[in-house]
Amino acid sequence: MGHHDDLRKFISELAVVHGRVVLSSGQEADWYVDLRRVTLHHQAAPLVGRVMRDLTADWAYDAVGGLTLGADPIALSMLHAASAAGRPLDAFVVRKTGKAHGLQRRIEGPDVAGRRVLAVEDTSTTGGSVLTAVEALREAGAEVVGVAVIVDRGAGDAVRAAGLPYRAAYTLADLGLVA
């Protein structure tokens, strides 16, 4: 099996949790995809970096990140995968709100001003979290080239309506969660 199939197996076995949950969007669901069980797993995390780099290979960007916490392990996995392939790629973290002390930065890591960046998220239903990150990145002077998620729960239309290209490594159908 290839990286994409291997990661799908990890997601299906480790991340899909059945039972009533309330999503960050406020919507209710009968199952939840807890991707931190995958993005922070010793065998799956390297696959996350490879799959997400493959997914966005034709987009030109030199930094990756998104709204903390969902995007953080993805960005780091992509940074390490790029480094292993001999390609420089920085990572950054977008805070939900600005810091009230120290340098009072909302975006941590290398400066994103004037840089082409990729916004990532683990899974997205409405696009709210990733679009919050996009807004902060644009305010900081970054050029957001697109949005990529591991699992799409329906955010594609909202992200595209905001004028951004959108890609997902997996759909709910890919995971057998919808017909």
UniProtKB/TrEMBL annotation:
Orotate binds at T125, R153. Residues 94-157 form the Phosphoribosyltransferase domain. It catalyses: orotidine 5'-phosphate + diphosphate = orotate + 5-phospho-alpha-D-ribose 1-diphosphate. Its EC number is 2.4.2.10. Its cofactor is Mg(2+). GO terms for molecular function: magnesium ion binding; orotate phosphoribosyltransferase activity. Keywords: Glycosyltransferase, Magnesium, Pyrimidine biosynthesis, Transferase. One of its GO terms (biological process) is pyrimidine nucleobase biosynthetic process. Pathway: Pyrimidine metabolism; UMP biosynthesis via de novo pathway; UMP from orotate: step 1/2. Pfam families: Pribosyltran. Belongs to the purine/pyrimidine phosphoribosyltransferase family. PyrE subfamily. This is Orotate phosphoribosyltransferase.
